[in-house]
Design brief:
about 20% helix, 37 strands, 5-stranded mixed β-sheet
């Protein structure tokens, strides 16, 4: 250890050989005696040091320029990688439409039922044939436009409900070649007291209808019973004075051996039967929410949870309960429809949930009800059996936006097919979330519900965000996906892959964001899509815009032709499928015994021998039990 004398200013250090010798001066801690570097001898190894030595504000400007360059370069690399990935992937085949309905004015809404398309627009609505795109009839007797339209299949008839810009909803009855006006539900003489129809719902079979009305700062639900049997008798047997030409025409058709359907094909236009007055709907009850909020409501069929009273006379399977949930409410309310106007409209049942119900949906068969709460929890009810099929939760950060039930299908020999017989306690549906991700929910009576991702939420390419989803009843396990960039794709949810795409001919400018107007036929393998495009003209009015509704037929696509024609599994093939092994032990034993008994019926000798062996075995068991 070295020591220095007190007060000394210098240090003497022994240096190794080959180094500088002599005393080493230790400068005081001041800047004036520091040696100054010669700029000619100053060499910087790191270029960033030279940039950092720039004075302000040039140093900050340089960093901003470099940051902008780096971000631009990342975007360029990302686009190049995406372009290379898209070029390497197999793009889906795009099919053009099979037909086109050209319109003079912009259509506002559209609905499909049976063989007809109902398009609402300026001053009314028009009826078109879904096959040849020909206009059958146009009812244009309003002073304002029709903004929304519903069409409900009642069997041989169709119930049409258009809503105009004033919020007035009207009921029309369409039977064969006749269109009948039933009633304007909420039309009043005093315009200051006019109410607006927000939503309507017709029960399965068309026995009841409910209308959500709003006016004067209040909101409520009006429920009606529809006298559809009286309507049918009225239109099938009209008075001779009301329409004498129809009787003569019917006699001519009978002479020629033609039916009314043939007559509809021969006629280019239907007719409005304004001279025939149909019975008005019967007002049942008025339901008011706790406060002015929207409502979702459904008509429910009889089940173990709510049976039809014995004193009530009605056809089997007739709707008997109205289910309602209000916004921000934890409860799902059940109202009996077997009441009179004098009865107080109190709910007969309440189903509570842990969180407020955000979205709910009833299946087309009215067998399943799905309640989606604001916390992302899904509760599925089997209404036919009277118990919940299970509870599932969406991934964290996902919240339900819409629910779409699928007709239950199975994968048989690599192809999606519908079971020939009825299916109980098994369902599938797709859930579109608020972050544009798409999920598949499956549930079975013997297994808990499962959720799988069909489409991830878009992170960078927001133009591919899903804006609408529609199941295709004619194709098992298929859904149409509409994106904001205008693309329409068909997805197989079982394989989680895009089968093909559909697009109108030519380039169509889209609204940003795109709100598609479409309608999928529940009975035929087709759907309709609105597409508007501008002609090459300098005028800014509607004269340079062509409005069209395009008709897409799935059977016209070679990839889908076999799927739509062979989409049902025979019952004999169902017995051999592996999914039956998931049945309970009692069901499997029952099926095995039934199958064995059917085999014995074909051979009487073996049947007698089998029963004799069972009898001996039964006696043996009885003797052993006596000994114990």
């Amino acid at each position: 250890m070295m020591s220095f004398p007190r007060g000394s200013q210098t240090q003497k250090i022994r240096h190794p050989i080959g180094t500088r010798k002599g005393p080493l001066e230790v400068p005081p801690p001041t800047e004036k005696d520091w040696p100054k570097d010669d700029e000619e001898d100053n060499v910087l190894v790191d270029p960033d040091e030279e940039l950092d030595s720039l004075p302000q504000p040039y140093r900050m400007i340089n960093k901003l320029v470099n940051l902008l360059f780096d971000q631009s370069w990342e975007i360029i690399e990302e686009r190049n990688a995406l372009r290379e990935a898209e070029s390497s992937q197999i793009q889906p085949t795009v099919f053009p439409p099979l037909g086109e309905i050209q319109l003079n004015k912009m259509p506002n809404c559209m609905a499909v039922s049976q063989d007809y398309v109902f398009i609402g627009g300026a001053k009314g609505f028009a009826i078109y044939n879904i096959y040849n795109a020909k206009q059958i009839y146009a009812w244009e007797k309003l002073k304002v436009d029709v903004t929304s339209i519903w069409a409900t299949d009642l069997g041989n008839e169709i119930l049409i409900a258009p809503v105009d810009e004033m919020g007035i909803i009207r009921l029309f009855y369409f039977y064969k070649e006749g269109l009948y006006l039933v009633k304007a539900i909420n039309e009043v003489d005093d315009t200051s007291k006019q109410t607006t129809c927000i939503k309507m719902e017709v029960s399965q079979g068309g026995d009841f209808a409910a209308f959500l009305l709003q006016g004067a700062g209040d909101i409520w639900l009006d429920v009606y019973k529809l006298p559809k049997e009286t309507w049918l008798k009225k239109v099938e047997n009209p008075q001779l004075t009301s329409n004498p030409k129809k009787k003569v025409r019917q006699l001519q058709l009978n002479t020629l051996g033609l039916t009314s359907a043939d007559q509809l094909e021969m006629d280019t236009n239907a007719c409005f039967k304004g001279d025939i007055k149909l019975s008005l709907p019967v007002y049942i009850m008025k339901i008011k929410p706790p406060k002015s909020v929207t409502a979702t409501f459904y008509f429910l069929l009889p089940s173990c949870l709510f049976a039809m009273p014995t004193e009530v006379k009605g056809p089997t399977g007739m709707t008997c309960v109205l289910g309602i949930h209000w916004t921000r409410s934890h409860n799902f309310f059940l109202y009996s429809l077997n009441r009179t106007l004098k009865d107080k409209a109190d709910p007969e049942g309440v189903w509570p949930c842990a969180a407020p119900i955000a979205v709910s949906q009833l299946s087309c068969s009215s067998s399943y009800l799905l309640l989606a709460c604001e916390d992302g929890v899904l509760t599925l009810w089997d209404l036919a059996k009277g118990f919940p099929l299970g509870i599932a939760a969406l991934p964290q950060g996902c919240f339900c936006q819409s629910i779409h039930f699928l007709k239950y299908f199975l994968v048989h020999k690599g192809q999606n097919m519908y079971p020939e017989g009825p299916v109980k306690s098994q369902m599938k549906c797709v859930v579109l979330c608020t972050d544009a991700s798409l999920h598949l929910l499956e549930a079975s009576g013997t297994q808990g519900p499962t959720i799988s991702v069909l489409v991830e939420r878009p992170v960078k390419h927001l133009d591919k965000t899903i804006c609408a989803v529609a199941p295709v009843p004619a194709l098992p396990g298929m859904v149409l996906i509409f994106s904001k960039n205008g693309s329409v794709c068909l997805m197989d949810v079982a394989k989680r892959e895009i089968i093909c795409a559909f697009a109108p001919p030519g380039a169509f400018p889209l609204e940003v964001p795109w709100k598609p107007m479409f309608a999928v036929s529940p009975d035929h393998p087709c759907f309709l899509l609105r597409g508007d495009y501008s002609h090459e003209t300098e005028s800014t009015d509607d004269a340079g815009i062509q409005y069209s509704v395009f008709y897409f037929n799935f059977e016209a696509c070679p990839l889908l032709e076999n799927i739509s024609k062979n989409c049902t599994i025979p019952q004999r093939d169902l017995d051999n499928m592996a999914f039956l092994q998931a049945l309970p032990l009692e069901k499997r034993c029952e099926r095995f015994l039934q199958k064995s008994y059917r085999k014995l019926e074909k051979n009487p000798e073996k049947e007698q021998e089998h029963w004799a062996r069972l009898q001996r075995y039964s006696l043996l068991l009885q003797r052993q039990s006596f000994k114990k």
